[in-house]
Amino acid sequence: MSAEAQRLLEELGQALEALLLAGTTTASSATQRTLTAAFEAASKARFLRLGATLRLVLEELKRFDSAPERFSGARLAFFVDRAWLLAQATRRALAAGDTAALERLNASPTQVRAESLTVATLGVQRRYVPGAFSAFEFRLRLLDAAPLADGRVLDRGTPLVYGMVFPATAGGQLPPEAMLALPQKQGYRPAELLEGKALTITPALLGGSPLRLALLPDSRVTTGVAVTDWRTLAPRDPAHWRARVAAYRPDPLELPIEFADELLLEDWTLLGDFAPSTVPGREAEREAPLAALGCRFTLRIDAEPATLAQRLQAVNGAQALYAAVHLEYGRQVLTPLALLGESPEYPGLDPTKFNRTTLVRALHASVVSQK
Q1: Which domain holds residue 12?
Q2: Of 261, 309, 318, which is closest to residue 288 (Cα–Cα)?
Q3: What is the pLDDT of residues 232-289, one digit of tens each?
Q4: 65 belongs to a structural domain
Q5: What is the reported pLDDT for 360?
Q6: Residue 108's pLDDT is what?
Q7: Number of domains the chain contains
Q8: Confidence tier at 171 by pLDDT (50, 70, 90)
Q9: CATH number of the domain to which 208 belongs
Q10: Which CA distances in Å does 135 have to 129, 165, 191, 244, 349?
């Protein structure tokens, strides 16, 4: 790595120390500019853990300024400390030429090219931070075996993850789902991923665990026929999750959500109503106890849309629940991705809002308000 990266990491460490020593109320615009520049540089240099952590620090600082009721000092302190640790350790590993340490710190997976992938969206998770960004994580499944450039062949049903992040625009007037109506340069609209149809992607890059999908500038995404055999694509072996939990050893650099898996709960029951989370930094989210697989889980959802809690309470085990699961403070925490019947239902999204009409109206309202 260049001397420029070393200098940037040193400046980042100093900015984080200044933030810790002086406190949030004295976080100057210069400090935030330094953090923003470091976030952009870390992302470009593929320092994935550091970049993701800095994004969360900036996100919390924006909350402090624009939505103090959603600000969490505990969450900010956690991510500032983590960013400092990653920045200092990365700088020392660079200076020592320690490739193994850099790979562990950066969590930078090798990406492999696939010439063609045919997939379907089994579930989706939405995350929305007002005034900051809208993020969507699509949980895909391969519909056909796919050869990779390194000689491997991925089987049908292999899980893939495709993430999209949209910065806040139009004065915050856009509902998150409206961003899915925006045309992409690969020739598709993200809303098409939610239509229950096969999608062919040519070409793409895959890397990490689970495999994360990255589109190339020359990638093309085309829509095919409706998918009918959804249940054959869903995960069906809870013993795999139990074995991972039994063998797990905590890593100080690992966030709880990084040790995660997927579960299909055919038989589940909510044991109470949704209430605000008591976990530091999660106060804006809601939780409810859930019983399944002979265990007790915590089902966690965003407060918005309000229909999400209502829908899950109305279903309450009548449909299979496809969810992400991770460990947090000794609890098994579920995030709903879909309700599975004959086809997936994505309860975390408001389907009335990811259309072009909503997008155009919100953009028009923003222009009018700024005149």
Answers
A1: 3-106
A2: 309
A3: 999 878 899 999 989 988 777 777 677 889 999 999 999 999 999 988 777 778 999 9
A4: yes
A5: 61
A6: 63
A7: 3
A8: low
A9: 2.40.50
A10: 9, 4, 13, 28, 12
